[in-house]
Amino acid sequence: MGDLELLLPGEADVLVRGLRSFPLREMGSEGWNQQHENLEKLNMQAILDATVSQDEPIQELLITHGKIPTLVEELIAVEMWKQKVFPVLCRLEDFKPQNTFPIYMVVHHEASIINLLETVFFHKEVCESAEDTVLDLVDYCHRKLTLLVARSGHGGPPEEEEGCQDNTPMQELQKQAELMEFEITLKALSVLRYITDCVDSLSLSTLSRMLSTHNLPCLLVELLEHSPWSRREGGKLQQFEGGRWQTVAPSEQQKLSKLDGQVWIALYNLLLSPEARAHYCLTSFAKGRLLKLRAFLTDTLLDQLPNLTDLQSFLAHLALAETHTPKKDLVLEQIPEIWERLERENRGKWQAIAKHQLRHVFSPSEQDLRLQAQRWAETYRLDVLEAVAPERPRCAYCSAEASKRCSRCQNEWYCCSPG
Predict the structure, then answer these.
(1) Dist. CA 375–CA 381, nearest whole Å
(2) By CB atoms within 10 Å of each CB, which of 74, 201, 218, 249 scores lowest?
(3) Are 127 and 120 in contact (CB under 8 A)?
């Protein structure tokens, strides 16, 4: 591992070996909390290793011990908890916690896992080690991106606001969860793009799921049209990067953003890969959606992603090609099973799970809270946090590294006080 180590090699091996799936009822329990802390440590170490571009032992350990499927199951389990149990907790009239930190940890768990998966899925062997759960992960990413497109049509992502004095702690937590959901979705986009890098080695069932069931190419076109990670604020272009909205300097506005790049690469993989082209049915609807891409393929974009000239040629041929009706062949396919299994196991129990967690998990004593805070302080060492933090904010005027935030809008940064 690198010069700055959070985990020793032997310690990382123990933590990875110990990863397991928890029932929804046990989320927030002592054993679950310990695993959440372990995941945070693995997450930070994986980012440190990737930052210094050296060997990445966390990724190798997850493959060696077959833990990628475990992470996918935990990801979908906490997604279900947030959809089915968290709203019940928020509605319980007799639940008025003064400290929502234990619940926040469960809400944050999804962000921790998707962040780790984004870091390690860059390597194709990680996708292969997901085995059948790659189907579940594709469905997860599709759910997230569909909601992102839907939200884009209704004013975009939520704004981060100062806490309102009239809000209860649970209402504040709900607002935090909504903000976190936007960041989680953008991570899911990156994971999906890394899955498309492996399109030629994916199973037929996974290809069919991506191209026929979900029609991901058309969904990605909608994302490019809406570009929910970009906005105009006060006449200035802002992009969401590094967990916050940042003003883009005029000289940088033609530069392709990381997220737009992820969408273009995913489209390239899904439309030009031989395996994908052989299985994608180009209906009249798909043709109409895909041809919208031609308006985005400017010379400036092609200079930054030269491979897209092949996509431009593909679209030129597509404009003249005949469309096909959807095929209805009888094919025996695998289907994702984690969400359906968890829902079947817990159906009708959401209220009971919430009440159990209210009594036994989310009402800790002051001493328990102090011990938890002490453990987190040991996990989040300042030197490590600085090393894994996103890149420094940039000056709105000259794009140099900035240290001063605008006191009025709280969005723009400057390398000196603006005149």
Answers:
(1) 11
(2) 201
(3) no
